[in-house]
Amino acid sequence: MLSGVRRCGKSVLLSQIKDELFNKYEVSKVSIGLSFIYTMPFNITPVVGVSSIAHLKDAMMAMNIKLTKKEWYKLYLLGKHKLP
Predict the structure, then answer these.
(1) Of 17, 19, 23, 45, whose CB has the highest number of CB atoms within 10 Å?
(2) What is the structure's pLDDT at 62?
(3) How far apart are CA 35 and CA 59, in angstroms?
(4) How far lies 70's CA from each of 3, 16, 36, 73, in Å?
(5) In angstroms, how far is the first alpha carbon of the chain from the final one?
(6) Considering only CA atoms, which of 65, 60, 82, 84 is closest in space to residue 18?
(7) Is residue 4 helix, strand or coil?
């Protein structure tokens, strides 16, 4: 995140939840974001561009993270989505 950038309510909550998950699973926030996508109830295959080995490792680590339903829904609802 850029320093000095102000964030509003939902963005702050999203960042806090990502921090919690980052600490729980001991992976990067990028890995948490990708694991959210991999956990979607329909088939999505992200195309990940990597410019370093670290980016590739983040993408690979995301495939091993199994978010709980509660964790996934927290991220989903904070992304301004509504439940069907």
Answers:
(1) 17
(2) 92
(3) 9
(4) 30, 15, 12, 5
(5) 31
(6) 65
(7) coil
